[in-house]
Amino acid sequence: MNKRRELPPFSALRAFEAFARHGRMLRAAEELCVTHGAVSRQVRALQDWLGTS
After folding, report:
1. CA-to-CA distance for 6 and 8, rounded, in angstroms?
2. Which of 32, 37, 41, 48 ranks highest by number of CB atoms within 10 Å?
3. What whole-number distance in Å separates Cα of residue 42 and Cα of residue 45?
4. Using one digit for the tens of pLDDT, what is the confidence trace for 1-53?
């Protein structure tokens, strides 16, 4: 866990939540009006922030 005790980036949480509900990057991207690559980068950023894969 991040030792700074900050919240993770909100955009990363939104992307992860949409991906978790839809099970597909493309569907999450359509919902969020971004590219699937943007969703992928946000999910990766959350993984990095959490220190997990």
Report:
1. 6
2. 32
3. 5
4. 555 668 899 999 999 999 999 999 999 999 999 999 999 999 999 999 999 88
